[in-house]
Design a protein that fits this description.
It comes from Candidatus Accumulibacter adjunctus. The protein is built from eight helices and two strands. The protein is an all-alpha fold and 203 residues long.
C-alpha cells in the first residue's frame, strides 16, 4: 500500500538522502573504472580519462565520509549515530528476531541496519585510504605522495592487494545491505527504497 503524507512522517532529511545516492553513484563510478573493469573500459575510451574519473570518484567518497561523520553528531535525530548504534547483544538479539519473523519495526535504522552502516562506512574508509596510498606509491600523486616516495614494487603490489581486498569486502557489505533492505521491506510491508527517496515512512 502506498504511503501518503497523511499517514507518514519525515524520517530521512534531504542532506542524508543526497549523501546516500551520491555515495552510491561515486562508488559505482569508482568500481567501474578500477581493476579489470578499468582495463576493459580503457580499451574503449581514453585510459587517462578513466583513471581521472576513478581518482575523483575516490576523492568524492572521501569527502562524503567526512561529511557523514560530522552529520552523525550534528544532524537530525535519525541521522545521528546515537540513534542507530546499538550494543552487540542488541544487534544479535534483533538478528535472532528477524530470523524468527518477530523483529520489531524501527522508524529509523534498526540495530542490524545500524551495524551494517558502520561496517560499510569502515569498509569505504579502508578502500579510500588504501586507494590514496596506492595512488601515492604508484603514481607519486595525491595527498599522501610525500609518505610514499620511491616506493618499492613489493610495497606497491601489497598496497594494491589491500585496496582490492577492501573493495571486495565493501561490495560484500553492500550486497548484505541490499539483502537486508529487501528482507525488512517484506517483513514490515514497507518500501525502504522509496523511503530513502521521499524521506518519509509510515508513522
Amino acid at each position: 500500500m502506498a504511503v501518503t503524507d497523511a499517514d507518514s512522517v519525515p524520517v530521512w532529511d534531504p542532506l542524508l538522502r543526497l549523501f546516500h545516492w551520491t555515495l552510491l553513484s561515486a562508488f559505482c563510478l569508482a568500481w567501474f573504472t578500477e581493476g579489470e573493469s578499468f582495463e576493459s573500459l580503457a580499451d574503449r575510451f581514453d585510459g587517462e580519462l578513466m583513471q581521472w574519473l576513478h581518482v575523483w570518484a575516490g576523492y568524492t567518497i572521501a569527502g562524503l565520509l567526512l561529511w557523514r561523520l560530522l552529520w552523525g553528531f550534528v544532524g537530525p535525530r535519525h541521522a545521528r549515530f546515537g540513534d542507530f548504534v546499538f550494543a552487540p547483544r542488541i544487534v544479535l538479539g534483533y538478528l535472532r528476531d528477524v530470523l524468527t519473523l518477530r523483529a520489531r519495526r524501527y522508524l529509523g535504522h534498526n540495530p542490524a541496519g545500524g551495524a551494517m552502516i558502520l561496517a560499510m562506512l569502515l569498509g569505504l574508509l579502508a578502500t579510500v585510504l588504501s586507494g590514496l596510498a596506492l595512488y601515492a606509491a604508484d603514481k607519486g600523486l595525491g595527498p599522501l605522495a610525500a609518505f610514499f616516495v620511491d616506493s618499492s614494487e613489493a610495497l606497491i603490489d601489497g598496497i594494491k592487494e589491500t585496496h582490492e581486498v577492501a573493495t571486495d569486502l565493501t561490495l560484500l557489505l553492500i550486497a548484505g545491505h541490499l539483502l537486508g533492505v529487501v528482507w525488512e521491506s517484506l517483513l514490515h510491508r514497507e518500501n525502504l527504497v522509496r523511503a530513502m527517496i521521499t524521506g518519509r515512512k509510515r508513522a
